[in-house]
User: What shape does this take?
Amino acid sequence: MHVPDGFINAPVSAAAGVVAAAAVAVSLRGARRELAGGGTGGGTGADRTAPLAGLVAAFIFAVQMLNFPVAAGTSGHLLGGALAAILVGPYTGVLCVSVVLLMQGVLFADGGLTALGINISDMALTTTVVAYGVFRLLVKVLPRSRRSITVASFAAALLSVPAAAVCFTALYALGGTTDVPIGKVFTAMVGVHVLIGIGEAVITALTVGAVIAVRPDLVYGARDLARPLQLRTSPLAGTAPAAAPDQTADEPAPAPIPAPAPATPRRSTRPLWLAGLAAALLCAGGLSYYASSSPDGLEKVAHDKGLDTKTEAHATADSPLADYSVKDIANPRLAGGLAGVIGVAATLAVGTGVFVVLRRRKAAADAAPAVAAPAPAEQD
Assistant: This one.
């Protein structure tokens, strides 16, 4: 659903850019809390979402290369808003998808640069907000279990894709550059993206379910499943010890010394991180060669309904990685696979860098000593 340059006029594109910039700014503040464990609801393992955040962005980039056939010569691909929001939090999720869209637009000429604000508003903001809202609602009404998290993930992802199609239709109604009845655009976009949503839901549910099966403590959306540790104390705890032989009855008894709480063991995130990276590299570097070559939902609708008559050439069309293929490499499998690996590495590096900086700033702000108020002057 990457919108190219020329689909939407300049005023609406600029307005969408302002909305996208505001969404990213708000997400930067919210992600600092999520990555530091201060997200809504808190919970065990919330402070360990940071190691996953950059990997989630890279994984979404990789899986978006795997277009799957839908119907009538149309394909679809993962949008990723629901997956990111459930794994690492809604604010961090917006940033994950935004990083992916930035890398795709700059390096691979996928999605217009003047339309970057439209794509972030549509594919990052809309999908994440709708998906996480549906997810939290279902988690509250479903039984408290890991299976409920997976079911809620499926439904949230399923609804997020047609929601993005509705958002695009609304933007096109405001600033479309071709004279096409908006009712036809709405029907075609929502119809095909309901089908694409099924694929999105399957990918999201399988991924969330796999992570929950091995490390539920690292899934932001499942943080409420972790029960806080309750220490059982002795009936004698809290009572004053018997007076020492040399202690008089008038002297106060010393306060009891509480037993230190046992430290919660921390499991390494490295095995999951390495497994996720291997899966991303496999998808982008190998499986992408077998992806469907049919146009995706937006491309198909644009061609059939005439939305693409004023499409503009991409500013980075001459990029060495344009169209997800390394130029000057004759073997298409090698050219595409190498481009995918480069994309995963670049997305991982940029995403991880952003999230590490955010987490360090939050930690530094929390560690900064408060400015002490001056003591009042003594009166003679």
Observations:
- The chain has ten helices and two strands.
